[in-house]
Amino acid sequence: MPLPRQEVDGTTPKYLRDKYAIVGIGETTYTRGSGITTRALGTWAVRNAILDAGLQPGDVDGMLDYSGGDSTSATFIAGDLGLRLNFYMDCVGGGSSTEALIGIAIGIMEAGLCKCVAIFRAMNGFSQVRIGGTGARSAAPVAGDMLHNRAYGWQSAGQSFAPTFMRHMYDYGTTPEQVAHVKMFHSRHASNNPKAYYKKRFTVEDVISSRFICKPLHLLDCCVETDNGTCVIVTSAERAKDLKQPLVLIRGVVGRCSKPRLDMHYQHGPISRVAGYYAKEILWPNAGVGPEDVDITGSYDAFTFTSMLQLEDYGFCKKGEGGNYVSDGTITLGGKRPNNTSGGHLCEAYTHGMNMVIENTRQLRHDVDDSCPVGADGKRRHTFDYKEGGCRQVKDVEVSANLGWANPATTSAMVMRKGW
Amino acid sequence: MATIDGDYMGMGLRIDDLDVENVEYFKHCAAHDFHLQACNQCGRFRYPPTTACPWCMSRESTWKKVEGKGTVHSYTEVHHAIQPAFRGKTPYMVLLVDLDTQKGQPTPDEALRVIGNLCTPDGQLAPPELVKSVGVGTRVRMVFSDVSAGIALPQWTIDETAQQPDKPWRYAQE
């Protein structure tokens, strides 16, 4: 772990660095067609995370979750699992909620409201409420602020974000081939992830020859829609030491940081700039590290472009050089700083950010669930051979950064480190 | 005032009676006139309609006529429509247009960036050959798509009288 840079001044008290930890992670099977309710998915994921942490059900006394009216309240998940809570709240939101809620969890524990918080997202994002906006959502009447977007056939995430993506190509000469590398690399990672929904490896040519959804997005620039429940459990590092898993510490968080004019962010440019531009001024000082100290990233890949834009505006490369950064091999397994080693939203599953935090937690435990052989002690013997179907553990990983995305104007992020 | 309901290519549009900002905005559009709120305190226009001034927080504003001319700042060309109303209309173009009025104010990065589809001069979604001729830098003028009494949508069409760039910037892959 590199020492905190001396010149930076955190906006939160530095004593919170490393004071809280991710102690449990839980997932359901990543599918299209779960055949069960979001209530059952949430219960399953939270239970898995409690078991992963080695906690007793009575140890979890806080619960946070997020949705866009497409899920089940903590009320029922806690009830089904017999948890009596000292704090719970259902929040509205999709991408960028994961890291933000981890920040809220730290805040409520620091304020003494509870001691151990389970954060979940349960969604039938394929079989019930299609995240891409198709199905019932596309046929809803248009009113209020939507009169200035949906009435123009400008509704889905891809359609809404496209002017940002396009303008980045105009401003900086970013090419379709450069951006397509994100899918190629993430698909390689997914091919080493037995639980990924799409394990097939794709080439740059596959991406740019796939059909257009809305320019500049081809089909393979867009993420998968899946059904799943996911959960992370946060508690104090002090308490974490007695639990089952290798310690993974939270260094710093920034939550739901925005560009100006959230009502319609295109009013304020440059429109090829995303909210990471502002968030990095909170994230790195809070964490006491900089991009150069980070070994792996989890940059939200709702689209190939979103990973690139965030890596750029959080400072992993110079502004405008994102196309080069994502295509020069840096972000692939075996590269200098792999991104989304599980395959991310493009390939593993769409979870509104949770699976990227779960993956980086596993990476920092040095225990990703790939196909490497398991030893007598129950630990995998990682080969660090990243061939198809092989290992996806990054060697000696110490520091991770998750960069969450809601839209070009809203982001959350978190830095974690290996604490053992 | 009553709630206004409209049907646009089979898609329901609704302006709630309490949504007085949108009622006023679309009332002018229905008369094929483009009006925006000008802040009574700082004088700046804003888009789309808001309930206070994003620059000075004043709640008071006056609707004023704004010239519907501008330059394409960015765009998308939709090939896979997700809304039923737009199926069969692909490819259609969504334009983000910098109005000439107030461009670069109050900071160089700001502009009144007004959304609209690329349309023919009579307000119909543009055919594919027209879509191919427009890109970043194209000069456009505002036209309107009539929906029903009290609602018309402001749209964009190529400004035939303006000097156009030799070749507007288009996405690399056609």
Overview of this structure, please?
- The complex is a heterodimer of chains A (420) and B (174).
- Chain A has a domain of 131 residues: 3-Layer(aba) Sandwich (Peroxisomal Thiolase, Chain A, domain 1), CATH 3.40.47.10.
- Helix content of chain A is 30%, strand content 19%.
- Chain A has a nine-stranded mixed beta sheet. Chain A has a two-stranded antiparallel ribbon with strand order 6-7.
- The longest helix of chain A is centred in the N-terminal third of the chain and has 16 residues.
- Chain B is mainly beta and 174 residues long.
- Chain B has one domain: OB fold (Dihydrolipoamide Acetyltransferase, E2P) (Beta Barrel), CATH 2.40.50.
- Chain B starts with a strand and ends in a 16-residue tail after the last strand.
- The interface between A and B is large, with 47 and 48 residues.
Flag low-confidence runs of chain B: none
Shape of chain A: globular
* Average predicted local confidence, pLDDT of chain A: 95
Q: Kindly state the number of beta strands of chain A.
A: 12
Order of helices and strands of chain A: EHEHEHEHEHHHEEEHEHEHHHHEE
Q: Most extensive interface: pair and counts?
A: A-B, 47 and 48 residues
Uncertain segments of chain A: 1-8
- Overall 3D shape of chain B: globular
CATH superfamily label of the domain at 15-129 and 225-240 in chain A: Thiolase/Chalcone synthase
**Overall average residue pLDDT of chain B:** 96
Which descriptors apply to this entry?
heterodimer, A: 420 residues, alpha/beta, 9-stranded mixed β-sheet, 13 helices, globular, disordered N terminus, B: 174 residues, mainly beta, OB fold (Dihydrolipoamide Acetyltransferase, E2P), 5-stranded antiparallel β-sheet, 2 helices, 10 strands, 9% helix
